Amino acid sequence: MSIFSRYASRGREAPWQPAAGRIRLRPHRSGVSGYNVVVGAEKTLGRLLSGTSDASIRFDDLCGLLESLGFAKRVRGSHHLFRKAGVEERITLQREGNNAKPYQVKQVRAVILKHKLGDRE
Question: pTM of this prediction?
Answer without folding.
Answer: 0.68
